[in-house]
Amino acid sequence: MNIVTDDSLRIKRKILVVDDESIDRQMLGKMLGDEYEVLYAADGIEAMELLKKHRDLISLVLLDLFMPGKNGYAVMEEMKVDESLSHIPIIVLTSERAAEVRSLRMGAVDFIPKPYEMPEVIRARVNRSIELSENSSIIKATQNDALTGLFNRDYFYEYVNLLDQYNPDTEMDAIAININRFHLINDMNGRDFGNDLLKALAETIRKIAREQHGMGCRNDADSFFLYLPRGLTPDEVHQKLSDGLTSFFDNPKTRIRIGIYENVDRELEPPRRFDRALLACNGLRGNFVEQISLYDETMHKKEAFSERLINDVEKAVSEKQFLVYYQGKYAIQGEQAVLSSAEALIRWQHPELGMIRPDHFIPLFEGNGLVQRLDHFVWRESAAQIAAWKEKYGIVIPVSVNVSRIDLLEPGFVDEVLSIVKENNIEPEHLLLEVTESAYSESSQKIVEVVNQLRELGFKVEMDDFGSGYSSLNMLSSLPIDALKLDMGFIRNIHHSDKDMKMVELMMDIAEFLSVPVIAEGVEEEEQYKLLKEAGVDLIQGYYFSRPVPASEFEMLIKEKVEYLKEHNA
Q1: 413-435 pLDDT, tens per residue?
Q2: Is the distance from CB of 449 to CB of 461 less than 8 angstroms?
Q3: How confident is the model at residue 306 (pLDDT cuts 50, 70, 90)?
Q4: Where on the phi/psi map is residue 402: left (φ > 0), alpha (ψ -120 to 50), or beta?
């Protein structure tokens, strides 16, 4: 068989004919020489020498069984145990029909009976054997993970279906396996150590799968799957996995976490089954006490709820089920606290599920790439609301909106926000852009470039969640920002903890050095308000003044500001 790579290039395969009869060798060479480059060996010893010399080039061996010295069986046995030769297909040349069963058990793929009478049949058998072998090699190369040798995820799912098909009544468990803080292990010990660790865990998974008549795969990075007939307890599975890592860690049990979906629902496709096991496994992140989690009814309800929200998001956007609420920011350094601006906060009024809290759907959508749809919706609604209030009350109430790292890296982002403010006839400085501190430290150079471009166009950029621990002090001095918004975790206990108050004062010093105003959110009590005012905080946001409210209710706060302006302008 020839491989045709283009119209002009043809590659001839090498085949090895092993036979002690010179006439038989010549006959096969004449039959196959037009299509193949034929090598010849007169006995088993010469055959092994040629095989080792051309191990990467020989596509097939035509092997006589009965030869003096090293016979065909000995050649097959030696090839079988040599990893570099075991993949080469063997067609046995024999006139002994009784030898077929033994040869098949030793790895032969076909037989050509002696004497050779039909050249076209011999060529067809050779062509087919090479084709099947090469297809098998391609499948093997693509179905296995290069590092660990386990199935990759896609082939694993196919074999799960096959296992189900041939074992319809066997109860099965889907198991997800993860290594706790693997990225830190890599950082501290090096990539080679990490790779050796993954290979050791994979070998343990392979051993468990073989012993229990199941299957294993590498899902990705340090994540693995096991599909096992029910039998081992969760503790036994975890112990076996941990035992495979004793040469790496003093206490390997704390290094492995597993999630198990027991007695899987066969109606679910394999990816859904292992999603459930993975959900249970991921629920253990940050838990240094428990290492085993079983998928249960509570997780099922949560998963079903999340799936419902994901499925409903497009309809919710088109039907405007999402609502923008506004929470005021008050300037507090004068004699009287005065409304200065607002933050836009999204809510979901679901027609069947009622009001859904943001912490139920925003993290979910962030993990599924849907949060940008919400961001864009909030930007447009907020800009339109700024324009409407300006028209109705004659004053501008700037509104800050959340901008994620993904938003900032999206091509066309700057053009989009600029078009939004132009469409609503407002100035860029009226739509305040809140960027989290963590966004600056991830892909920081690109983020800084985009933020600089926004500021040149007149947008004001606030660093949200400042103090949550991502940015270094030397990085802060070069970051383009117009305001610092303190993480509410620092505000919560300042009236009870001198330490927390000292942290706020420290961050006030940083803001003074950067010459930017400070916003404190999450302020709920008068004592917090007084401490922050005394510390020099410029703006306050929180329940102390107002909870987030719909635009119609927020107008009451705007009216208060209008009255204040009238009194102080009079």
Answers
A1: 999 999 999 999 999 999 999 98
A2: no
A3: confident
A4: beta
The Cα–Cα gap between 296 and 332 comes to: 50
Backbone torsion region of residue 542, taken as left when φ is above 0, otherwise alpha when ψ lies between -120 and 50, otherwise beta: left
**182: three-class secondary structure by DSSP:** helix
Residue carrying structure tokens 């694993």: 156
Is residue 176 within 8 A of residue 280, CB to CB? The reply is: yes
Q: How far apart are CA 185 and CA 425, in angstroms?
A: 53
In terms of CATH, what superfamily is 151-295? Reverse transcriptase/Diguanylate cyclase domain (3.30.70.270)
Which one of 3.40.190.10, 3.40.50.2300, 3.40.50.360, 1.20.58.410 gives the CATH number of domain 3-143? 3.40.50.2300
Amino acid at 218: R
Cα torsion angle, 288, 294, 297, 302, sign: positive
pLDDT tier for residue 557 given thresholds of 50, 70 and 90: very high
Please list the alpha-helical segments (H only) found in 424-548: 437-441, 444-456, 473-476, 488-491, 498-514, 526-535
pLDDT in tens, 534-547: 999 999 999 999 99
**Phi, psi (degrees; rounded to nearest 5) at 216:** -135, 160
Does the predicted model carry a pTM greater than 0.70? no
DSSP class of residue 299 equals H
Query: Are 177 and 224 within 8 A, CB to CB?
Result: yes
- The pLDDT > 70 percentage for the chain reads 94
CB 230 within 8 A of CB 262: yes
Tell me: cis bond preceding 115? Omega within 30 of 0 counts: yes
